[in-house]
Design brief:
2 copies of one chain form a homodimer.
Chain A lengths: L1 E2 L2 H6 L10 E4 L3 E6 L4 E7 L1 H9 L5 E8 L8 H5 L2 E9 L4 E8 L4 E8 L19 E4 L4 H8 L7 E4 L3 H6 L1 H9 L3 E5 H8 L4 H9 L5 E5 L5 E5 L2 E5 L13 H16 L4 H18 L6 H4 L3 H15 L3
Chain lengths: 319, 319
């Protein structure tokens, strides 16, 4: 096993590496995406990539993941340029994680054509020493046992935020509930709220989830916006309106990345800070769906982001 | 044919009746509603009733409709107390409009059990003289030919707002398009936007509708909120979160009534005024779904309405 950016690591013998504000543990993959209009060819994918792409707009990020020796590491250079620390990404012999899928009926549903886990099947997250006391730790939707292993490696992060898949709730619910108990913020989609709590009403469901551990629940409803359930009650956030969606893949991870990145950049991890961050993350998400994989956000400048945020603010502000 | 409140009319020989700020033309009915949890028995129904119930919170309303001689006119007293002018409601020999329906799967869909049009089948709107120059005219979802007849009876209202049903688009699209052309504000639901414009994307669809006449389009998405498309672009509005829905019947008409009533009360018919009114109407809608038919809003006081609006404002305000 080797690590990316070993040159950089070597350099840091005398100069200890900077502690990233946000550490993300998740998948690093390649995707092939078919939409009702066109196909992507091989593009960068994986929750850790999408999350880092978004979060690095606001703050320093350390990525943890695994890729095979076939992975186009050069394609991650855009992240490195935004000061994403890739020293937590292992390179292992074997194929990288590949996902191929198709969106149907105006993006209303999605089907998987193939999932080849490759080296991701044996992913054992092992955090570099300088990752072990981040401000924020984000556990993307990996197996709850791996999420727990990561939690055992960190020293008192100020905030632990987690995501999951329906699959993990199905096959490892007890383990997931343990992770949930140790988390501060849980990103759930509407179905996950219902599966976990048995509540059809999402607001009741989110309240029930708060009793299972996390102080904050963010329920993501795709084009229909999201809401935060917290100590101050409900905060309703909208999805930025987009006329021409190219590809929604990764928008959910980027949404989480936008929130965590903005929050870390502000410094104080408060509920009002999460509310503010949700607006910025909506704008991040809007750029995300305008390109395949991470491409929609790749070339976006801070000025463009700020302009669209001002537009968004005018769309939601009661005059 | 007789008119309701003839005593009042007689009184007004020397004292001309006040011109209502908002005039609504629509159905006045009785409904029997079955939900996944319970049934309503006979309750008041009809778009004009729900609209007036909401609008009269803010301003004076004149109702135009028709009922049979079996209609429980006493049950409309709560509207009269709120200064709704009922002199435009004809009473004709024969049965009143009756609708019976059932909500399924947590209110995700609805089926009609029976529709008995009764005297509503021959509804010929005939506006009382003092209704013919209102600030705002609202045409509920009646046949486009009737909507046109009403338009021909009024003298330059400051605003004409309209609603419709898919049925009218199916059976009388050319007539509906003429009404659309003569309107300032069109309340559409997401399906109607798609049927009328062929655009799947609601924002593109709403823009296309603006080219067909109205300056403003409000697209209603039920629990997922609504948006306004106007000269200043898009305004996104949320649905007030409700944990225990009793009956959504009439909430869409009440939403329109809340907007038109608040707008008329403010006096100036501006786009910013519509944006402000949408927030108040969300709160009106939230009370509406908490009871059968109009009951959810019947007993609500101004203080309760204002309190819930303040709560709502905190839920959407970026801190």
């Amino acid at each position: 096993m080797k690590k990316i950016a070993s040159a950089r690591k070597a350099r840091t013998i005398s100069n200890p590496p900077a502690i990233p504000s946000v550490v993300v543990v998740g998948s690093v993959a390649q995707d092939i995406i078919h939409t009702p209009f066109t196909s992507s060819g091989l593009v960068l994918g994986g929750s850790a990539v999408h999350f880092s792409n978004a979060a690095s707009f606001f703050t320093s990020v350390g990525m943890v993941g695994v890729v095979g020796d076939d992975y186009p590491l050069k394609d991650l250079d855009f992240l490195r340029k935004r000061k994403v620390d890739l020293s937590g990404v292992d390179v292992k012999p074997g194929p990288s994680f590949l996902w191929e899928g198709r969106y149907l009926e105006n993006f209303l549903s999605r089907e998987t054509i193939r999932t080849e886990l490759g080296v991701f099947a044996d992913f054992k997250p092992n955090l570099p020493q300088h990752y072990r006391s981040p401000k924020i730790l984000f556990l993307a939707a990996i197996h709850p046992q791996l999420q727990q292993q990561v939690l055992n490696q960190v020293h008192r992060p100020n905030m632990v935020a987690i995501d999951t898949f329906k699959l993990w709730i199905d096959v490892a619910k007890p383990e997931f509930l343990k992770v949930l108990k140790r988390s501060d913020l849980f990103f759930a989609n509407d179905d996950e709220v219902r599966w976990l709590t048995g509540e059809h009403n999402l607001f009741k469901g989110a309240q029930a989830l708060r009793k299972m551990g996390p102080k904050w629940i963010i329920v993501k409803k795709g084009e229909h916006g999201s809401f935060l359930m917290g100590e101050q009650g409900i905060f309703l956030s909208n999805t930025y309106p987009i006329s021409d969606v190219v590809d929604p893949t990764g928008a959910g991870d980027a949404y989480a990345g936008g929130i965590m990145g903005h929050l870390a950049a502000e410094g104080r991890l408060t509920e009002n800070g999460i509310r503010r961050a949700m607006g910025w993350a909506s704008v991040i998400g809007s750029f995300y769906v305008e390109g395949f994989g991470p491409d929609g956000l790749k070339q976006v400048t801070r000025t463009q982001l700020q302009k669209r945020y001002r537009d968004f603010y005018r769309m939601i502000q009661v005059p």
